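Technical appendix A lists one of the benchmark inputs used to test multi-chain prediction within the project. The record comprises two sequence entries:
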Amino acid sequence: MIRIVTLAPFDAGDITFLSKTLYRSFGVGTEHQGERALPRKAERPDGRFDALKLLADAPAVRAYADDKVLYICDVELANPKGPLGEPPAWGHALQGGDRALVSTFRFKPRGVTEASIEIYRRRLARESIHHLGHVWDLHHCYDARCAMHPSWSPSLPDDPEFDLDTFCREKSERRIRLAKT
Amino acid sequence: MVTVSAVRTPGKRERTDRKKGDEEVPSGAGAISSSADLAAGDRVVYPKQGVYAVTGLEQKDIAGQRLEFVRMTREEDGASVLVPLNKVTSIGLRRVASATDIEGVFHYLGASYDDPELDWKVRHRDNVERLIAGGVLGVAEVVKGLHSLSRLRPLPTKERELYDSSRHLLVNEISVSLGVPDVIAEDYIDFALMPPAGVKLPLKPPPTPVELKGPPWKRKKPVASEEEDDLGLGDLGIDLGALEGVGLGTADEAEEGESKGEEQSEEEEVPVAVVVAPVAAKAPAPKKKPSKAAPAKRKAAKRAKTAPAKAPAKAPPKKAAAKKAAPARKAAKPGKPAKGKKK
């Protein structure tokens, strides 16, 4: 089961849309576990939040062995600097682990029109599928139409697809099947 | 003699990368040249498997023989592997890449790439070789090569799997070497491969890849020379003129053949050394088992001597026979019923 935990106030409609999309993508039940406080310890001097630390310090929720917890926040995240620079952080996940984090900071503003809300929801769904995919051991995909394509890729359209491609879907299905207790 | 080189966890497909008489894998960067180099606690990379931690040496009685093994545990999932001490050098174990090597890998990944190899046979063989003997840069080469190819066209299933597994190996090694989580290591890789719009990477000249040489790893491109094209059909008494057009396929057929060949090669898991030398294997075959076609050839030669003028006259019936045989071949294909057999 996927348990969604919000670390900031989010619209109920957005969470409902997200739950439905996650269920459709992974075939696993999804439930909103409520809102929790954002761990302030993860904040860095520059005002951004350390993605690794935020996920590690995120408040625990009651979950069973195979449950995955998805945290959603709206603060700017930062990744550790790599040899060629710092990759943009849209979220973080524990590869093959049990928790993932998504930030809506880099999304286009939600706005008030139906179209902008739709785009916002689709992006939230895409990033959630992407980071939950890592939790199920998926790697990045070269196909820009797949949700596992890197979020910052220049080949990604403004309003990207939020489905997995065949290879990633089959791989995630295998993992989920194996994980069932 | 026990030929098992590793004990794997259940659920993982057993792969036999080499034959019993293992050839030495060319030593790449950080390769372990002697079993004495290994000590408990060392972290090594098992080609195509991942990063292992050496647990220690063990002695086991197998088939009445006392054998020494190195026990290693895969860091990713805790799977245990026993490698016979005398096989340590031949399986291509190497040290985990240093931070300097990893930096070179990123400069390689970020560098502009010349055209990817389009010949799938060459590509497949190269990729397998590089994964085994190319070190961490070899794995990066496979990822970059397949990534570049994926920009031209979607990868076939087997290559998609190879791309995923080599990416997994690279992520794993970078993560261990730099001490960052896997997801961050993968972000670093893709940041180099597909930098965001407007970002200019501080690239240096990439390191030179490991040259794969040596007898079992002959880097010979399968160029279709006349000698190789000669399948010996003339010796079997088959008129090649009658089969004109048979070998000429459309681009679609070639593509189909490519994917079939890829699947076959992957299923068989043929050692690279065997794949490289198809011509050498061809020569001794007739000596061991003389084919039935040999007398036919002699008869044909006699006929040609006695009545050379009749030979061209006999050619048309052969063509006709070939045409007759063609529908039969079509009918033999599953799922494609012959037109003539429609009821």
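Residues 157-178 of chain B form the longest helix (22 residues). The longest strand of chain B covers residues 50-62. Comparable benchmark entries are summarised in Table A2.
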